[in-house]
# Entry
Amino acid sequence: MKNKITILILTLLFTVSCEKSAETYFELSDKALSDNKIEESISYLDDLLSKHQNDSLSAKAQYKLSVIYLNWQNDLESGLGALKKTLENYPDSKQAAQAQIEIQNFPVWVFNQAESLRMQKKTKEALANCSYLISHYPSHPLSAKAQYLIGDIYMNDLRDFDTAINQYRKVIENFVGSGQEAHAQFMIGYIYANILKDTDSARKEYQYFLEQYPKHDLSPSVRFELDFLGKDINDIPALKHITS
# Structure
C-alpha cells in the first residue's frame, strides 16, 4: 500500500515538474512568432491562458492574442474578441486600459488597415476590411468612405468597371448626405464616359449629378464632360494642345 502511495506521489511530482510555466509558454509563443509560425504562437498563448489563468502574464497573453489576430492574420472577429476578453477578464490591468482604447477606435483602425492593405496589393484583404466595417458599423462616418473605397478598388486596382459602378451606387443608396455621395455619382458618369464609352449612360448620370448636386465643386467638371461627350480630343479646344 505504501509503495502505491509513493508511486502516486512521485507521479504527481513528475507531472508538476514537467508542466511549463506561464513564462515558458510566453517565451515559446514569442519564438514561434519570430519564426512566422503563427498558429503555433497562438496555441502557446491559449495553453498559457488555460493552465495559468491567474498568472501575472495572463493579461499580457490575452492582449497579445489580439495583436496576432489583427496584425498577422487580419482576423477582425477574433482580434476584437480577444480585446474584449482582455477588458472583461483583466479589468485592472494596463492591457485592459489599452484594449478599451482600441475597441473604441476599432472602426478607424479597420479603415486605416484597409488602406494599408491596399497599398500592399492585398486587395482581397482590403475589400474584406471595408465590408466588415460597413456591416458591423453601418452608421459610422467611415462606412461611407469604406463603401467608396470598394468602388475605387474595383475601378483602379481590379479594373472591373461594372462592379465598380454597382459599388459606387451603394454609396448613393446607403449613405445619403455623406461626403462621398456626390463623388460616387461623378465616378459613375466618368466610367461610362471615359472608360466604357457609353455616351448615353454617361449623359444620363452626369445630368442626374447636376440635378442633385448643382453647387458641388465637381459641377464645373461635369458640365465640361457633358459639353464634349463623345468628341475626339482634337475637337476640344481646351485640350487640343495636348496632341499638337
Q: What stands out?
A: The domain at 24-104 is CATH 1.25.40.10 (Serine Threonine Protein Phosphatase 5, Tetratricopeptide repeat). The chain has a mean pLDDT of 90. The two ends are 107 Å apart (CA to CA). The chain has two domains: 24-104, 107-236.
